[in-house]
Write a structure and sequence with these properties.
The complex is a heterodimer of chains A (451) and B (112). By secondary structure, chain A is mainly α. Chain A is 66% helix and 2% strand. Chain A has a 3-stranded mixed β-sheet with strand order 1-3-2. In chain A, helix 3 runs antiparallel to helix 4, helix 4 packs across helix 5 and helix 10 crosses helix 12. Chain A is globular and about 65 Å long. By secondary structure, chain B is α+β, with helices and mostly antiparallel strands. Chain B has a single domain, classed as Alpha-Beta Plaits. Helix content of chain B is 21%, strand content 37%. Chain B has 2 helices and 6 strands; from the N terminus they run βαββββαβ. The radius of gyration of chain B is 17 Å and the shape is elongated. The interface between A and B is medium-sized, with 18 and 7 residues.
């Protein structure tokens, strides 16, 4: 997104060819704007209040949402380690974000892969600075935009940890986060969401971060897990989730928080946010039930963990489609993503033998890809989507697939570099003894559950 | 005197207790235990990862009674704990050498 920091007028029109999600709208806005002299952007208190609320909802997704969701899936001896790693990398991401992350993703200028460094340390941003939205002449305070996007960086790096918990050192996690955010997350966020970004230029549809957040985190998780290696005893030893109750609580917090993530990505309190909201309800509801249906079809019982997994798969898939689909397209998308993710985690993973401990790749990576490609389908007006009447689904499918492949490649290479750097700095993996005793006592000197 | 030890399915405990009260048993000791016999263990599945447990949760009921009552105690347990399915459990009857009531020091039949 290009920000109109106190510069209306001539640059305003370019500035409004913005944020990636709905390029068609953005182009319309830019055209309208070219025809009439743009007014100075106005900040609406309702929009601002909604965006501040959305920002906090995304924070709630991380702490306690993701921490409990992931924590419950680990063994009891690694509960605190998992929660602490998630919280600590999220905090680290917030600090890095204001230092140089924001300017790398959303600063002025730069190229298709990274923005300019003019806003390092938030230089020049004041309470009066504004960030453009999708509507011509409507803006939100830039500090609110900085915070909103900050929570996205924080949750994405935390999501990656799902594949490496129960064996990666705390220090290694922190080192990895620093390098990974710098060379993977900030550039991809810029490519997808900035007006001069590479994917934005291709016209890729990504309403709330299916590529930037989920495919990126999922693929990075897979690569990190492959380099790190399996947990000792995997898959022979019993590694059942220690508390599906905690996982269930985390799932609920993630779903509620996801409304900030998806509906907040409209950047305004308007109809587009409303569309994202209803899709975030129905795609998720569909996915939750479809996972349990597949379990039954495979001869198992419908399970609580399946229900929770379906919810996350649906949320992930609807993220790029949130404002780019009609409600019934979203229901189908959620259902399809749930079925595909089920097979990814219960058939593909055991067959290939990698240890993606909490299925960060199986759900976020695979669900994200289904969502990104599916968005090109459900966007079609004939299927109830908000696409234009002359929408060319075939062309858009190619763009979406191209964006997915490019993200996969960038995330894979960047993650490999980040993990190798973390290994050089910290040794990467805890000793076999610490792994056996649990990272709670071995890395933090505490136990989650004392008698 | 006899010590009757029964391994039963946990959900049958209330029925066994009622049946024992009906034949005049005035006390029992109940313990949660695990074990295995002919009944297969249970299988748990988490996102496709299957874990089978060989040890099945059971309840152990212990009743000390006079030799004259032992037959009816065994019969009461056998009938009340029966579901007809594998895993209903077993009853062990042992001779009991001595019984002491701690509060009074009474012994054997008077202590039961």
């Amino acid at each position: 997104m290009k920000l109109s920091t106190g510069i209306a007028g001539a640059t305003g029109a370019a500035g409004l060819a913005l944020f990636a999600a709905l390029p068609a709208w953005a182009q319309d806005a830019a055209l309208q704007n070219a025809a009439t002299p743009p007014a100075a952007p106005t900040v609406n208190k309702g929009d601002t209040a909604w965006m501040m609320t959305s920002t906090l909802l995304v924070l709630m997704m991380i702490l306690p949402g993701l921490a409990l969701f992931y924590g419950g899936l680990t063994r009891a001896k690694n509960m605190l380690s998992t929660m602490t790693q998630i919280g600590a990398v999220a905090c680290f991401a917030m600090l890095i974000w204001v230092m140089y992350g924001y300017t790398m993703a959303f600063g002025d200028g730069g190229n298709a892969f990274v923005a300019g460094f003019g806003k390092a340390f938030l230089k020049g941003i004041t309470p009066d600075s504004t960030a453009a939205t999708f509507t011509a002449g409507v803006a939100i305070p830039e500090f609110v935009f900085v915070c909103f996007q900050m929570t996205f960086a924080a949750i994405t790096v935390a999501l990656v940890l799902g594949s490496v918990v129960e064996r990666m050192k705390f220090s290694a996690v922190m080192a990895f986060a620093l390098v990974w955010l710098t060379i993977v997350y900030f550039p991809i966020a810029h490519m997808v969401w900035a007006s001069n970004g590479y994917f934005f230029g291709l016209g890729a549809l990504d309403f709330a971060g299916g590529t930037v957040v989920h495919i990126n985190a999922g693929v990075s998780a897979l690569v990190a897990a492959l380099i790190l290696g399996k947990r000792v005893g995997y898959p022979q030893e019993r590694m059942a989730p220690h508390s599906l109750t905690m996982t269930g609580i985390g799932t609920g917090l993630l779903w509620v928080g996801w409304f900030g993530f998806n509906a907040g990505s409209a950047l305004e309190a308007n109809g587009s946010a409303g569309l994202a909201m209803i899709n975030t309800f129905v795609a998720t509801a569909s996915a939750a039930l479809f996972w349990m249906l597949v379990e039954r079809a495979r001869g198992h019982q419908g399970s609580a963990l399946g229900f929770c997994s379906g919810i996350i798969a649906g949320l992930v898939a609807v993220t790029p489609a949130a404002g780019n689909s009609g409600p019934f397209g979203a229901i189908v998308l959620g259902g399809v993503a749930s079925v595909v993710c089920f097979f990814a985690v219960s058939v593909l993973k055991p067959r290939l033998g990698y240890d993606d401990a909490l299925d960060a790749f199986g759900i976020h990576g695979v669900g994200g890809m289904v969502g990104a490609v599916g968005t090109a389908v459900v966007y079609a007006p004939g299927l109830g989507g908000p696409g234009p009447a002359d929408y060319d689904m075939g062309a858009k499918l190619l763009v979406q697939i191209g964006a997915v492949l490019a993200t996969v490649a960038w995330a894979a290479v960047g993650t490999a570099v980040s993990v190798v750097a973390a290994r050089a700095l910290t040794g990467l993996r805890v000793s076999a003894e610490v792994e056996h005793n649990g990272l709670d006592i071995g890395e933090h000197g505490e136990r989650a559950y004392n008698p | 005197m006899k010590l009757v030890t029964a391994i039963i399915k946990p959900f049958k405990l209330d029925e066994v207790r009622e049946a024992l009260s009906a034949v005049g048993v005035q006390g029992m000791t109940v313990t949660e235990v695990k074990g295995f016999g002919r009944q297969k263990g249970q299988t748990e599945i988490y996102r496709g990862a299957e874990y089978s447990t060989n040890m099945v949760p059971k309840i152990k009921v212990e009743v000390a009674c006079g030799s004259d009552l032992a037959g009816r105690v065994v019969e009461a347990i056998q009938q009340s704990a029966n579901t007809g399915a594998i895993g209903d459990g077993k009853i062990f009857v042992l001779d009991l050498g001595q019984v002491v009531r701690i509060r009074t020091g009474e012994t054997d039949d008077t202590a039961l």
